[in-house]
Amino acid sequence: MNDLLRNFFDWQLIRQVLPDLLTYGLRNTLVLAILSSLLGSVIGMVLAVMGLSHRWWLRLPARVYTDLFRGLPAALTILMVGEGVFSAQIGWLESPYPVAILALSLMSAAYIGEIFRSGIQSVEKGQGEACRALGMTHGQALRLVVVPQGVRRVLPAMVNQFIAIIKDSSLVYFLGLVTSQRELFRIGQDSSVATGNLSPLLATGLCYLLLTVPLTHLVNHIDRRLREGSRRALVADEAPAVNAEGALA
Questions:
Q1: Which residue has the higher pLDDT, 11 or 235?
Q2: What is the reported pTM?
Q3: In this structure, what DSSP letter does residue 171 have?
Q4: Residue 178 resides in a domain
Q5: Which domain, by its residues, includes 39?
Q6: 28 exposure class (CB count in 10 Å sphere: 0-12, 13-18, 19+)
Q7: What confidence tens digit (pLDDT) does each residue in 142-161 have?
Q8: Per-residue model confidence as pLDDT tens digits over 74-103
């Protein structure tokens, strides 16, 4: 029992690894997750619009991309993208750090695209018909009316996806990041291998919880606010109109 506790709760090792985890480990994880989310959102929006197109030659590539990147394990996707980029010997992608961002972006775009597509499809068809009645083109209706409403409805799902990207960033160690580029998991893993103790990995897990637990509660808060707003709007729509004299219209 004492050996088990010492293997997971060696406080001296935890104190030694915490400075690295909370400085460049936490920073690199957040940079990977934020940049990957931004690039993945751009690609995902393109995939969503292509997937909703009436033209099959736009829908088909979006469907193939989504099925491919959603069907492959995250570790395999990161390795394949990394090996492919390194084999191509692209100058500005020679460092594993931008390759890691690219791999996470391509992988997350498949999920984000489906999130955006479901949000856009949830907008009532009457919104598009009203835009056409006002003389807007299909593109203008999407850009100015439908997409903003759809994105607002999928905010909880987007935050959930950001949490998933934070956790998937632990797999980029396959690409061989240098010391200054190491994220949370790589720092904890290296320290555990060097000491033969799992306490650094426990400290790494606590750092991930420090990021993901507040975001999980944020998702619940956003979802609750959106549900309350929808409920109030429904009640307002169902309430009988009242004229100036207070009589029912």
A1: 11
A2: 0.86
A3: G
A4: yes
A5: 10-238
A6: buried
A7: 888 888 888 888 988 999 99
A8: 999 999 998 888 777 666 567 788 899 999
Q: What is the DSSP letter of 248?
A: B
The answer for residues whose C-beta is within 8 angstroms of residue 17's C-beta and 6 or more apart is 187, 188, 191, 199, 200, 203, 204
Query: Does 244 reside within a domain?
Result: no
Distance CA 186, CA 165 (A): 16
What does the chain come to in residues? 249
Q: Note whether residue 60 is domain-resident.
A: yes
Q: For residue 242, list its beta bridge partners.
A: 248
Q: Which residues pair with 248 in a beta bridge?
A: 242
Nearest of 221, 129, 203, 207 to residue 169 by alpha carbon: 207
Q: Identify whether the C-beta of residue 77 lies closer than 8 Å to the C-beta of residue 107.
A: yes
Domain total of the chain: 1
Other beta carbons within 10 angstroms of residue 211's beta carbon come to 18
Instruction: Identify whether 83 is part of a domain.
Output: yes
The pLDDT, as a whole number, for residue 249 is 45
CATH number assigned to the domain comprising residue 59 = 1.10.3720.10
Q: CA–CA distance from 121 to each of 124, 154, 229 (Å)?
A: 8, 11, 19
